[in-house]
Amino acid sequence: MRRLCVLPLLLVTLVGCFAPQPPRLDARTEPDRAFSVPLPVPTNAVGDWSLVDSRNGMVGQGRWIARIDEDGRALWRTRLPAEFALTARPGRPHAASSGLSPIVLVGAAAAGRLPALASVDPDTGRFRRLAPSPPRPAGKLSMITVLSGRQAVAATCRAHASCTLTAWGSDTGQVQWTRRTRGPAVFAAPCLQQRGWKVPGQPGPHDCHPLTFVADGRIEVLRQGEQRPHGWRVKLPPGEIAQVYPTTYRTLVVTAPRGPACRVRVAAYDTVNQAPAPVWQRDFAWNQPQAAVRDGCRQDPTIPLMMGYRLTLPDAAGALIGDDNDGEFGLRLRPGEYPVAYGTRILAYRAGRGFRDPAPAKVDNAARPAELTPAAQPLGSGIWYVPGEGRKGVVLAVDVYGKVTWRRAVGGPPFFLGDNRLVYADGSRLTALHARD
After folding, report:
1. Which of 67, 210, 333, 350 lies in the 20 to 30 Å Cα band around 23?
2. What is the rounded distance in angstroms from the CA atom of residue 259 to the CA atom of residue 284?
3. Taking Cα atoms as reference points, which of 368, 381, 376 lies closest to residue 435?
4. Mean pLDDT score of the chain, rounded to an integer?
5. Residue 371's closest CA among 410, 339, 402?
6. What is the Cα–Cα distance from 273 to 280, expressed in whole angstroms?
7. Where would I find the beta strands (DSSP E) of 240-279?
8. Residue 12 φ/ψ, nearest 5 degrees
């Protein structure tokens, strides 16, 4: 009989150990205000912060960085020296690499040296200058990244000529390795260089790739924990290389648009087997209808070619939607349309005409509300941010039927703090919404 009593007692004990979880903020119910407190850190001209670390509840802009808890209380607030003011996107001086612990700040460069580094402890807010950075090689700073809490890599490049990569220990300042290319190098955005994570549960693996660059007829890759880059020789497409995109199994190399027809070539290389020949390649006329004209072509290199797990190629004959692994493109949009992601689908958008589903399913799919402009940003759980002018925007909640269930005016891009706090600037205050209990 004693044995029979052990299991119920154990179950009761286990159940009592877990507190009920708060409901998740989503599009199904109207939210309540969780808190409204004075802004711990002022925002920039669009109501955002240069540093947003949603996992730790940290924001930073200018000379201030702070951490808040789920009730809006400032756990700490630190004033930064002027040379470490946060005003830029990651990958440049005056920025931070979020996702690391401690947070690493990239500051201004002293004369003749690479940018200075500092750290901020997320638990205490303690600011600490790291070791002086190494001397700066000749050329313009093209890229700087912090691959871990102990290694930084910077590239300085001469115009249309060689680049020098320098890796050093952030704590010691000692150079770990250098690499000089014979010709130009083109870099992909490395891990932790993207904008602060907005969606609950992120960052995801699709957003975090090794440092990858193309130079001297080779693809070079530097992964976390490796001491120096490793690569392989490839048969690059003819012409100037403009962009490099690492995906899960491929490295995409894109040439610069050339000629009056803006012709480009995309070549995909096998990152696993590292064969010299591309797995596939495709020529087309580059045209992004949503972009301004640059050098005679409608192009904007900041518009990503990958939408979720699908590759989009901005062909003037109609944008192509397909698979980056095999280069098969089963969907082509109409000329003048451009792709916009909506959940797991990709819709076609034309200015002045709105959205169209280019691949309607047999089962009726919910239409995308007209209020979700192409610039709308998904935040997760059916919640979107639609930016306006300056410090104006609106949060929209859209259910599975495509109906807007609630909306809130906000003063800048929001971010999720956990699953049940949507935090945003509202004038001089920091406000958060949460699901009703």
Report:
1. 67
2. 12
3. 381
4. 88
5. 402
6. 14
7. 241-246, 250-255, 263-270
8. -65, -40
DSSP state of 162: -
- Which letter does DSSP use for residue 138 in this model? S
pLDDT of res. 203: 37
Percent composition of the chain: helix, strand, coil (DSSP 3-state, to 5) = 5, 45, 50
Longest dimension (CA), the chain: 88
Name the phi and psi angles at 232, rounded to 5: -150, 150
In one-letter notation, the amino acid at residue 338 is Y
pLDDT over 80 at 363, yes or no: no
d(CA 321, CA 107): 40
In angstroms, the CA 125 to CA 44 distance is 21
Other beta carbons within 10 angstroms of residue 179's beta carbon come to 18
The CA-based angle 182-187-193, given to 5 degrees, is 145
| 3-class state of residue 17 by DSSP | coil
CA 285, 265, 326, 305 torsion: positive or negative? negative
According to the model, what pLDDT value does residue 204 have? 40
- The whole-angstrom separation of Cα 258 and Cα 237 is 13
Buried b (16+ CB within 10 A) or exposed e, 229-265: bebeebebbeeebbbbbbbeebbbbbbbbbeeebbbb
pLDDT, one tens digit per residue, over 384-414 is 999 999 999 999 999 989 999 999 999 999 9
Query: What's the rounded Cα separation, in Å, for the pair 336 and 161?
Result: 37
> Under DSSP, is residue 13 helix (H, G, I), strand (E, B) or coil?
helix
Whether residue 54 contacts residue 79, with contact meaning beta carbons closer than 8 Å, is answered with no
From the centroid of its chain, how far is CA 426? Answer: 24
**Which range has highest mean pLDDT (100-114, 203-217, 270-284)?**
270-284
- Looking up tokens 């403009």, which residue turns up? 242
Find the distance separating the first CA and the last CA of the chain, reported in whole Å: 42
pTM of the model: 0.85
47 touches 391 (CB < 8 A): yes
Q: DSSP letter at 2?
A: H
Tell me what the mean pLDDT of segment 80-94 comes to: 89
Q: HSE (CB half, 13 Å, CA atoms) of 383?
A: 31
